[in-house]
Design brief:
By secondary structure, this protein is mainly alpha-helical. The protein is built from 5 helices and 2 strands, in the order H-H-H-H-E-E-H. The protein has a two-stranded antiparallel ribbon with strand order 1-2.
Length: 111
């Protein structure tokens, strides 16, 4: 992942509503959510939500798919994992660590 891609992704998440939207989509998992469900869950007006979804989609953090008459939005886990990998690629001052392990079990020997 390139530095500009990471900056775009982090910039998109650096806004409270967009961060809440992304987290809701992460919780929803692969089945995703419709804008109406997101709007209801987060108490965000539809027009405002549309703007925020567009920004997250532009950053590559959210995907959109049409199912019949509905749009389904999903978190782009691969993209977010790429951002996390970029941020932690050279962790532990170059020493061996468990950077490839899940964040909850990661242990750096120099941290």
């Amino acid at each position: 992942m390139e530095e500009n891609d990471v900056i775009t992704a982090l910039s998109a998440l650096a806004q409270p509503v967009r961060l809440r939207v992304f987290r809701a989509l992460v919780v929803a998992g692969p089945q995703g959510l419709t804008p109406s469900v997101l709007s209801e869950q987060l108490a965000v007006p539809g027009t405002s939500l549309s703007f925020h979804l567009k920004e997250l989609t532009h950053a590559g953090l959210v995907s959109q798919e049409r199912e019949g008459r509905h749009l389904i939005y999903r978190a782009a886990f691969d993209r977010m994992n790429g951002v996390i990998h970029y941020l932690t690629e050279h962790c532990c001052q170059g020493q061996a660590c468990e950077a490839s392990a899940p964040a909850t079990t990661r242990q750096c020997t120099t941290c």
